[in-house]
Design brief:
By secondary structure, this protein is an alpha/beta fold. A 5-stranded mixed beta sheet has the order 3-2-1-4-5, with helices on both faces. The protein is about 40% helix and about 15% strand. This is IS3 family transposase ISDsp4.
Length: about 290
């Protein structure tokens, strides 16, 4: 009976009710509130202290120099006094989801086994809510380890329609967040992503096609193609993540919940005529 009553409460409100220091275990609280325990991922992934230092430096550097390739990064970290080889650097780049941008589109042949689609937003008049959603994953440095943050932003209104945290970048995780956003906000016409493995998978493509959503993908190495969500990452990191240095998944979830509530409801944007994303989004969908 308790579980049935709990399921009536929206999932985000139920997640906010979880308390780390409660007499009940996290697992028991999740059971009573009908929440999937795995959706919290309380344990950040860990690396050596030096690797975490390098990864945090890369994360901060990416907002200023996303055009740095492996060779430049190797020189940089060598000059900073780290004894690092190219194999280790490439592994850490992958962990922080570093995607080097290029001045022009790369002309390498795509893997025919992957599902890749053209970029559809060039010249498109994006003039209404739920016309285009942009999605992406970013690395989150923490006090003792790291996690990942996935977000969905409505491009026209800058409203964050969905977000989630995890300690691994899986297609299932991204799809679950997209499904939740669709249930709460309706189906967008287009979803734009990069060409990460999560978004070139058969499962992701199937989810979007089943919902009648047109698929758009950034050009390989084209940072500017998904500029709106890149700006979101810069905001959330410099206004929250770098300031608070969260210790675990629960504190990170609560911090992100507070931040995105602020971002959507209180943080006005010059590009929106000094209105908040919430005001513009719900004015459009009303």
């Amino acid at each position: 009976m308790v579980k049935k009553k709990a399921s009536i409460i929206p999932i985000e409100k139920r997640k906010a009710m979880i308390e780390k220091n409660d007499q009940l275990s996290i697992n028991k609280q999740c059971t009573l509130l009908s929440i999937n325990r795995s959706s919290f991922y309380y344990s950040p992934k860990t690396e050596s202290k030096e690797n975490l230092e390098i990864m945090e430096t890369m994360d901060r550097l990416y907002t200023r120099a996303p055009f740095f390739g492996t060779k430049k990064l190797l020189v940089l970290f060598t000059l900073l006094g780290y004894n690092i080889n190219i194999k280790r650097l490439r592994r850490l780049k992958k962990l922080v989801n570093w995607k080097t941008i290029y001045p022009t589109r790369k002309t390498s042949i795509s893997n025919p086994k992957e599902y890749k689609y053209p970029y559809l937003l060039n010249g498109l008049d994006i003039c209404r809510a739920n016309q285009v959603w942009a999605i992406d994953i970013t690395y989150v440095p923490m006090k003792k380890g790291f996690m990942y943050l996935f977000a969905i932003i409505d491009i026209h209104t800058r409203y964050v329609v969905g977000w989630s945290i995890s300690n691994s970048m899986t297609t299932e995780w991204c799809n679950a967040c997209i499904k939740d956003a669709i249930e709460r906000h309706g189906i967008p016409e287009i979803i734009n992503s990069d060409q990460g493995s999560q978004f070139t998978s058969a499962e992701y493509v199937k989810l979007l096609k089943e919902n009648g959503i047109t698929i758009s993908m950034d050009g390989k190495g084209r940072y500017c193609d998904n500029i709106f969500i890149e700006r979101l990452w810069r905001s959330v990191k410099y206004e929250n993540i770098y300031i608070y240095a969260y210790e675990d998944g629960l504190s990170l979830w609560k911090g992100m919940n507070e931040y995105f509530d602020f971002y959507n409801n209180d943080r006005f944007h010059e590009s929106l005529d000094y209105q908040t994303p919430h005001q513009v989004y719900y004015k459009n969908v009303a």
